[in-house]
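Appendix B. Raw example, untouched.
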Amino acid sequence: MAALTRSVHDLTAAAWFGGSLMGAVGLNGAAAEAKDPTERTRLSALGWKKWAPVQAAAIGGHALAGLALLGENSARIGRQDGVGRLTVYKTAATVLGAGVTLYAGILGGKVEQLAEQGSRGATEPREDASEELKAAQRQLKVLQWSIPVLSGAVIVMGAQHGEMQRPVNVYKGLKGK
């Protein structure tokens, strides 16, 4: 069961990371190539909307598998030097990443509502755009790049957790406490 839980945990983090990075690079980049400026934000918003349920499922699955892993490793988290601290950092990055992802979705909806103003790209406003659209697009650009950074950090910390489970590292960590 532990292998299945760990696999779900890792695969859902990978989906969250990969989908977010593809959206920021591929989807937004492709939408920016639309000939009609009003289509640029609309097409990007449609793509992100289609991805949102998968991303939400990935984040939810990651959280559930993470809770199961916490239960399976609770003794080691409390006893092995460094594991508890890394668990706190990873949990904080996961919660922050989920919040950023949610807020990016809210801002994306706002940008979609203002799509008739047109834009240079999904997150690049035109000079004559309203301040509301400009602000939303600027924030969205930062958030859409923050998501793969945060979800990538979660993956890296997950790998670090895995390394901490090697017998030699468990021994050192228990001896270090």
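End of appendix B.
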